[in-house]
Amino acid sequence: MDNKTNVVDVLIVGSGVAGMYGALQFQDNTSVMILSKYSKTTSNSNLAQGGVAAVLDTVEDSFELHVKDTFIAGRHENDPESVDVLVREGPDDVRKIMEMGVRFDRDKEGELDMTLEGGHCRRRIVHFKDCTGAEMVRGLLAEVEQKENIIYKENTVLCRLVRVRSGFRADLLQDGEYYSVFCSYCMLCTGGVGRVYKYTTNPKSATGDGIRIAYELGAKIKNLSYIQFHPTAFNSEDGEQFLISESVRGEGAYLLNCNKERFMDRYDERLELAPRDVVSKSIILESRRTGSNNFYLDITHEDADFLRERFPAISEGCARYGVDITKDLIPVFPCQHYLMGGIEVDIDSKTTVPRLYACGECANTGVHGKNRLASNSLLEALVFSRRAAEDIKRCMQNGFAKVSELPVNLDFSGAPLPEGLRTEIRNIMQRAFFVLPDAGAIRFGLKQIDNILKRLKGAKYAQTTKYLEALSLATCAYIILKEAEENT
Ligand SMILES: Cc1cc2nc3c(=O)[nH]c(=O)nc-3n(C[C@H](O)[C@H](O)[C@H](O)COP(=O)(O)OP(=O)(O)OC[C@H]3O[C@@H](n4cnc5c(N)ncnc54)[C@H](O)[C@@H]3O)c2cc1C
């Protein structure tokens, strides 16, 4: 497809696992455009370490057990229909991406090597070393690049969506230039909101743009305050956080307090393999008990060669800070990691706005309930982006009208965004709504965010990426705190 095309059947905003797998479901006669705000590999998907949970072996494991584990982790707030769809349809999607060339580790007999993570009662997580997401992105991108019906625009920001007859006008910003693309259907696959926090495992793309854009269109947003705090992010002195995957605990690591003692038995009988929210809360309670924020993972009792082979990226990341995981304790502390809620969708990923779909981390499918079970999100991205594409295909077959092009002049000029506003939002959220939030902090934070939002909307700022991201962060922070205030 021509790079200058400005009318497409389907616009997919986001090039993580949800965006690319969704795009690959369309036939050659459907024109698809994928947008990526930054580079092709700047996404949560690309950073995923642990793997994908799927029942690929029905002798040792079963759909019922995976459903049960998902409900226990989600504190039974999960949507039963979507969990059932996730668990039963997911294995076929995992097989499909393997056929597309995505690799997962295998044992000496050539069988898939399944690992264990917190909250799972069986070894059911397929992985590629400790860089599963990067391997999935590599494999899917290679497929996307072969497709003539897909146009891929890197470093291109969706500023906003405007409803027009039979579809949307998407206002885009690329290399400092604004232009519009028209689409009959739009799939928002924009990922999470991690950057709303000072400390997060998420990359710079995770500013909640899709959620803000859907909200502006009047779409229903649900459970945005269901934020997952991962218990074990590397706790560096420079404040940079990267994930120490749950599978490190799955392979036997102990969690230690400032006195280098295991302490999880004080809080939960599942010890280090309790679900993430339980481990995060236990760390915060233990830090209050001991008066220290120093916590460690210890996996030095495992074989050094096994550790280097099994966790190459984590070994390398720790080594950059002078920590040898085969000999040293790894300093860890909880930080923002994942968003369970998002844009409300039905079982086919349809939002409450006609022709608008949302998939992956920006969507609220209800599969995760109050707390996501480890490695269920890549599976969710696969299953529900495929279902969105299938629904769009059904609509197209039923003769839905195509979008018609309208002339448009975009004037997005204005004053530059004041420096430091995004940092201010992130600091406010870190204080207002962390692992064990309290009502006073939420109320105070909400007032501060409300003021910032009014400032952002009141003045005429130039619609730069910085401004748009600040607007997304403030909008998402506002919705999170408002919902949290109502719930407490
Ligand atoms: C460190 C880390 C480890 C993880 N490990 C696992 C794991 O082991 N297993 C698991 O199941 N899950 C894991 N997760 C979660 C999982 O990776 C994500 O939930 C999932 O990849 C989300 O995929 P996505 O396609 O919805 O979003 P993403 O992969 O985040 O992609 C979002 C895309 O949207 C684009 N975008 C955003 N805004 C705009 C805009 N305005 N205009 C244009 N493009 C835009 C971005 O550029 C990006 O391409 C992990 C997450 C992190 C951060």
Describe the 3D structure.
The chain is of the alpha/beta class. The chain has 3 domains: 7-226 and 340-397, FAD/NAD(P)-binding domain (3-Layer(bba) Sandwich), CATH 3.50.50.60; 233-336, Alpha-Beta Complex (Flavocytochrome C3, Chain A, domain 1), CATH 3.90.700; 421-487, Methane Monooxygenase Hydroxylase, Chain G, domain 1 (Up-down Bundle), CATH 1.20.58. It has helices at residues 17-23, 44-47, 63-73, 80-99, 132-146, 209-216, 246-250, 276-290, 304-310, 312-319, 377-397, 421-432, 439-458, 465-487; strands spanning 7-13, 32-35, 52-53, 114-115, 125-126, 150-153, 156-164, 167-174, 177-188, 221-222, 227-234, 254-256, 295-298, 330-339, 342-344, 356-358, 363-364. The strands form 4 sheets. Strands 1, 2, 6, 7, 8, 9 and 16 form a 7-stranded mixed sheet that branches. A 4-stranded antiparallel sheet has the order 11-14-13-12, covered by helices on one side. The chain has a 3-stranded antiparallel sheet with strand order 3-5-4. Helix 1 links the parallel strand 1 (7-13) and strand 2. The longest helix has 23 residues, at 465-487. The radius of gyration is 22 Å and the shape is globular. The site of flavin-adenine dinucleotide has 43 residues, from helix 1, helix 2, helix 5, strand 7 and helix 6. Flavin-adenine dinucleotide (FAD) is lined by residues 13-19, 35-38, 42-45, 47-52, 132-133, 157-158, 189-191, 201-202, 205-206, 209-210, 243, 338, 360-361, 375-378, 381.
